[in-house]
Design a protein that fits this description.
With 649 residues, this protein is of the alpha+beta class. Among the domains are: 67 residues, no CATH class; 158 residues, no CATH class. It is built from 10 helices and 34 strands. A hairpin with a 5-residue loop joins strand 18 and strand 19. The longest helix has 26 residues. It is globular. It starts with 8 loop residues before the first helix and ends with a strand. 35% of the residues are buried.
């Protein structure tokens, strides 16, 4: 009887290699318990990526392919050309399957070296300690920081030492605020602008990501200017700007005039208007400042330090012979909308229009402006407010007299912005809701308020209207009425307005005139909204609200009333609320703080959440800049973290 066959020497060697590889894989996949507790998801991903990368490098080190030396911080194009063995100008090259994995591993190491600082900065902004503090503070406790700007101080070096604001703005008539996170420099930057009839001032408040004590950091004036076009770092050092400037584009819509005026007459008209116009409205984004005013003038000013323009330099001017009522710039900074009101020649009736300006940014950051597009509104009521949605594909407008809001879709397949369409219109304070199963009690209460209050001077109608967060299909509306008109949050049922879908055509062209109107409507059914539903009414704050801001986390709303009170409304999972018009969602309302009062909604304090939703920034017409921070301490441990006044729970 024969015994079991003994394995040969080659088989024993193969089994030992397999056991060693399995053991090494098992050890590399294990993670210490104490390290897993102090890491979040991004850190773990970063760790496993480095381990996988080092494992590939060790495996390929035993191959016959010679390693390629890569210099640290080498450009990506040079690395790819070195891996391929060709010059950067060559486009195609063959890579053998044996060294493909090695090339990918070495290329990923270079990319990791270039972007490791971005990962570290991202992890610092989304720290576990900040999230813990936020969970303990929001919405009942906050840390308040207040900074009066230089415009509120006495100018003792002037002839009259008791005169306020000689070199600055004494009192602003409009303001705007914008905040963003610069991951490359690790900074959280907040900018705000104060506007008067003849001057403007731009301030910047920068917080380093590693900074722990922020009480000594104050907003600084980075640029200012005048309505005539002068700009500089301070009011005492302004540069005399040419009219028009060397890098300025001038567009005009002279309705009612035949032919185009020559360049000299246009420049003379521009100089005449800039010498006598008054600034009224402004809006701020990361790279540009938009100012409109009387005489039908609207200007775009560069505030970016990276581009070819100087900070404060006017780059675009739009002229029209009709008054400009409101302005708005899209989140992607490619579109600019303004509202004008003209008159028909025959009937002499007012007709509102929306003028859409398109900014085309080149690779070298030069900005070109296309000819403005004129959008006719199918109502006689003038437009008083215009806002873009998050994806810059729709605009929402509010009218003056009827308190109506309308939604216009701008994009249309391959045609771009050539065919804007009206997709929704409604009277929010008359009907309450379009759903059949809605409660009519609140609607009757709103109708019982009557229309007499709307004709009084104390009633301003709709004061703020804007879209909610992306893909939520919600809008928030605030108003200033003597009757029952609380702020409302409305959900629109139908196709998401932030959807990237452009239409049934896939060939880059929209539907032509060969189809009938019924066929076009059937093919564009995706862009229509079906109904509306009131998700939330905030009756605790009254009916004299001037401005609102929605948290990017989707858990809170800040409201500013006529007297300057700042209300914080906490609603968990605000974007996914499913309440009906008769049963408002559960909410908590607290008094966050106070700012300067305002007689008109255009003079109200500007408010915005930070990019991570952990702070609230406000600036009022007196130049008081405030930071309400929910991430800088824990109640009971930090004495600066104080409790807000509770309105309702």
């Amino acid at each position: 009887m024969q015994g079991p066959r003994r394995p040969s020497h080659s088989e024993r060697s193969r089994r030992s290699v397999v056991k060693k590889s399995l053991k090494s894989d098992e050890q590399s996949s294990q993670l210490p318990h104490n390290m897993s507790e102090s890491m979040n998801l991004l850190t773990l991903f970063h760790k496993y990526a480095k381990e996988e990368q080092s494992g590939l490098s060790l495996t390929e080190s035993h191959s016959n392919v010679e390693a390629i030396d890569i210099v640290k911080q080498k450009p990506l194009e040079d690395v790819s050309s070195a891996l391929q063995g060709t010059t950067p100008s060559s486009r195609s090259v063959s890579v053998s399957p044996q060294n493909l994995r090695q090339h990918g591993s070495e290329l990923m190491s270079v990319v990791h070296q270039e972007h490791s600082s971005d990962f570290e900065t991202l992890l610092e902004h989304v720290s576990e300690q900040k999230e813990y503090n936020f969970s303990k503070c929001f919405p009942f406790h906050r840390k308040l920081l207040s900074f009066p700007t230089s415009q509120m101080k006495l100018s003792l070096g002037t002839v009259n030492p008791f005169k306020l604001g000689t070199f600055g703005i004494k009192k602003s008539i409009n303001s705007s605020i914008h905040t963003f996170i610069d991951f490359h420099q690790g900074l959280e930057t907040t900018r705000f602008v104060l506007l008067s009839e003849k001057k403007w001032e731009l301030y910047e408040y920068v917080l380093p990501s590693r900074e722990t004590n922020i009480s000594h950091i104050k907003p600084a004036l980075i640029c200012c200017g005048k309505s005539t076009g002068e700009y500089g770092e301070s009011q005492n050092n302004l540069k005399s700007a040419k009219t028009p400037g060397d890098h300025e584009t001038v567009k005009s819509n002279e309705f009612g005039k035949s032919g185009k005026a020559d360049i000299q007459s246009s420049n003379d008209d521009l100089k005449k208007r800039l010498a006598s116009w008054d600034q009224t409205y402004c809006q701020l984004t990361k790279n540009v400042l938009v100012i409109s005013g009387t005489k039908g003038v609207m200007r775009v000013i560069n505030i970016s330090r990276d581009g070819p323009y100087q900070v404060g330099e006017p780059i675009y001017t739009y002229l029209t012979n009709f008054p400009i009522r409101c302005i708005c710039i899209s989140p992607n900074e490619n579109l600019l909308a303004c509202s004008i009101t003209g008159r028909e020649r025959i009937s002499d009736k007012e007709q509102p229009f929306i003028v859409l300006h398109r900014m085309i940014i080149s690779e070298d950051l030069w900005i070109n402006f296309a000819d403005p597009l004129l959008i006719t509104v199918p109502y006689r009521d003038p437009i008083k407010l215009v806002k873009f949605n998050a994806s810059s594909s729709h605009i929402i407008c509010a009218t003056v007299w009827e308190a109506r809001y309308i939604i216009i879709k701008l994009r249309d397949g391959g045609k771009g912005y050539q065919r804007p369409r009206l997709v929704w219109t409604e009277l929010p304070f008359r009907t309450g809701s379009r759903q059949k199963d809605g409660d009519d009690t609140i609607s009757r209460k709103e109708e019982a308020a009557g229309t007499d209050d709307e004709l009084m001077m104390a009633s301003e109608g709709i004061t703020d209207i804007q879209f909610g967060n992306m893909y939520s299909n919600t809008i928030i509306i605030t108003s200033n009425y003597l009757g029952y008109r609380p702020p409302v949050l409305i959900r629109l049922h139908g196709t998401p307005i932030d959807s990237a879908r452009t239409g049934p055509n896939t060939d880059g062209h929209s539907i032509g005139n060969s189809f009938s109107s019924r066929e076009r409507d059937d093919n564009e059914e995706f862009s229509m909204l079906k109904s509306s539903e009131v998700l939330l009414r905030v009756s605790e704050v009254g009916s004299s609200i001037h401005a609102a801001a929605i948290s990017p986390r989707g858990d809170g709303i800040v409201l500013v009333d006529k007297d300057g009170r700042l209300y914080l409304v906490s609603v968990p999972n605000l974007n996914s609320q499913t309440g009906t018009a008769g049963s408002p969602s559960k909410k908590t309302v607290v008094l966050l703080g106070e700012a300067a009062n305002a007689e008109r909604y255009t003079e109200a304090a500007s408010v915005q959440f930070s990019a991570d939703g952990g702070k609230i920034f406000t600036v009022d017409r007196k130049g008081l800049f405030q930071v309400f921070d929910f991430t800088k301490g824990v109640p009971g441990e930090d004495l600066d973290v104080v409790k807000c006044r509770i309105i309702s729970v």
